[in-house]
Amino acid sequence: MRVTHAGVVGAGAMGSAIAEVLAFNGIPVVLKDVSDELVTKGLGRVRGYVDELVTYNAGRAGKEIERIGALGVQLTDAQITTLRAKLVPKFTPARGAEVVARVRGTTTYDEFRDVDFVVEAVFERTEVKRPVLEALDAVLPEHAVIGSNTSSLSITRLARGLRHVSQTLVTHFFNPPYTLPLVEVAGGVDTREDVVTDTIEFLQGLRNHRFPIVPIRVKESPAFVVNRILLPV
């Protein structure tokens, strides 16, 4: 599955973080919500996630020097220089600015006409998710894949009757996706097998701030796997 443009609907904590992960991997992303205020907040979250990573990288050498000093080890100037060279920031402010620039906000679905892969990340209720999927279905190109970030709802029911029904599946990221690598992937009754396997392969090619993304295939069932373990169903 070739993804040159991606989209996320829902600019809350999860949606903006998913958008940041996609942009972190070099993919231009359109991030949608229902008002300019919510979109602006979502873009601010994206910037905040990136700034945290820039700050972490900039401080790695100093923290390591402090850690060694706390052990009672007196480093020489040469050793400090060597440590700083080894821990030179890999994620610079310039790289951070590139990630932020890849995410653009919108309040309309018109921006999704050239999107190859979209994640729906709105409130966990069928009556909220279904209209979003219908709106996406009306504008997305024929080949586009729709991933729902639902943590418990039936994708078969959510996607029923859509033009993209065979290309709609669960892509359940865990919070926060920029540090937690797991993604549950589940097809519905009508989801094509190649869409499931291609989506898993696409996700396997991504990484977040710490780890490669780890998609796991699960069956369509209430709360899927992880939430069934963590919470009684």
UniProtKB/TrEMBL annotation:
Pfam families: 3HCDH_N. InterPro entries: 3-OHacyl-CoA_DH, 3-OHacyl-CoA_DH_NAD-bd, NAD(P)-bd_dom_sf. This is 3-hydroxybutyryl-CoA dehydrogenase. GO terms for molecular function: NAD+ binding; oxidoreductase activity, acting on the CH-OH group of donors, NAD or NADP as acceptor. Residues 6-57, 91-207 form the 3-hydroxyacyl-CoA dehydrogenase NAD binding domain. One of its GO terms (biological process) is fatty acid metabolic process.
